[in-house]
Amino acid sequence: MNSSKLDQWFAIPSVAVGMGIFCNALWGTAFPFIKMGYRLFSIETTDTASIMCFAGVRFMMGGFLVFLLGSLIQGHLLPLPKGKALVGSIGLGLWMTTLQYTFYYSAVALLTGSMGGILNSTQSFMGVILAHFIYGQADRMTLPKALGCLLGFAGVLVVTLGDHGSGSAFGIFAMLAASFIMAASGPMNKSLGKMANSFSVCSINLAVGGLVMLLIGLAMGGSLTPQSPAALPVLLYLALVSGIGFWIWQLLMKNNPVSRIIMFGLIIPIVNVLLSALLNGEPLFEWNYLVALALVGVGIWLVNRPAPVKEKQAC
Q1: pTM, full prediction
Q2: What does the alpha-carbon distance between residue 238 and residue 264 come to, in Å, rounded to a whole number?
Q3: Alpha-carbon separation of residue 122 from 72, 115, 130, 267 (angstroms)
């Protein structure tokens, strides 16, 4: 399948909805598996250097998998972007992968899966607001979108009430910082997707960003030593999640309004809550989690519902 056919397919509204749900559900499984990976590689939550090594290897593997997938689908080795597209792809890797996930992985070590997932969902509302200022009338803020954003932030406030067990104010800050970086990456993804092959952009993004994280981790004295046969399959799964997820996200951003697509990030906390309870023994039926999930669910509906068609008055 060539790039133009992929673009046409991802621009179909029903396909965009289905792939948006699939992509974010896939990402939603990452949080509990990352925490599982820490245990399987015997990485302490305070061992920032080894955490960087873990993340770096994951994203480098993800970039390699995207390169293989793209080459197989297109029937030839992926072409490297040139000029501004190459510089932009490297910059995207440093911004979207290295910087975002430095904050994200720090937050994972300090927050419960449920708490972290819901805080991470704020990227959706940040993205809607940024799209309004960047694209103007083409992706403007409307009253339903504004109400959806307010309900989403209300959900974040609700989940942080009381003794939520996050254990760290820095963890909350780090996750919100990661969410902002992800939201601000939407327009960059959209622009680069029009300049170069989406597989190539995604592959360079992950590989470069992951390599920088690995080098930083090694320079800080980090290491990555599996303590169980299950460690490598978990790392490979996380690499697949990042590779497939980022490629789908790249195509969705390229061929659809940013505000419509980024709102599907609200699916992430729902998957996080379910898997965290199942895999890590964390509480599921906490009242503030349930209320927060209800609020973000209404928020995504408000932002994505079609605008009412105004009937023309008869002359």
Answers
A1: 0.81
A2: 20
A3: 35, 12, 12, 11
